[in-house]
Design brief:
The structure is a single chain. The protein is an alpha+beta fold. It has one domain: HIT-like (HIT family, subunit A). Strand 1 and strand 2 form a beta hairpin. The N and C termini lie far apart (about 45 Å).
């Protein structure tokens, strides 16, 4: 019997991580490339998810540390929605997905990994991108490295 091995070494950090220190969305002083920040606007920024649900998974977050939409003023709210739209357009142009899951998880019980800093997930989807791997092997096959994707989108 031949065994195929799928290598995803960047996921080891996520699998072995015990507790994340600080907030990944509080980016003051960080270099864009080191944090996979694709674009900044006046009040928000877009970054690649380094533990993506699918290839091209982007998160859009306000610079200000607020936990939900209620914490944003009107200018910040408009800015984050416009940047979300711009990232969807960028992904359509560069990756040509068939659709998207775009959403906000507010609070730990809703699935928010970072429950105290608002962020919007943009997950490109392709017909047939869900298969047996996540169910059987708890594994997701990513066709592109984060570095290659960052270069394509930035």
């Amino acid at each position: 019997m031949h065994l195929n091995i799928l290598w995803a070494p960047w996921r080891n950090k996520f699998v072995t991580i015990r507790k994340i220190k600080g907030c990944i969305f509080c980016i003051k002083g960080q270099k864009d490339k080191d944090s996979f920040i694709i674009k900044k606007s006046i009040y928000s920024f877009a970054m690649l998810n380094i533990y993506p649900y699918n290839n091209g998974h982007i998160m859009v977050s306000p610079f200000r540390h607020v936990k939900d939409l209620k914490g944003l003023n009107d200018a910040e709210l408009l800015d984050i929605i416009k940047l979300t739209r711009d990232m969807q357009v960028l992904l359509e142009k560069k990756l040509k997905p068939h659709g998207f899951n775009i959403g906000i998880n507010t609070g730990k019980v809703a699935g928010a990994g970072y429950k105290d800093h608002l962020h919007i997930h943009i997950v490109p989807r392709w017909k047939g991108d869900s298969n047996f791997m996540p169910v059987i092997a708890d594994t997701k096959v990513m066709p592109q490295s984060l570095e290659e994707l960052y270069e394509l989108l930035s």
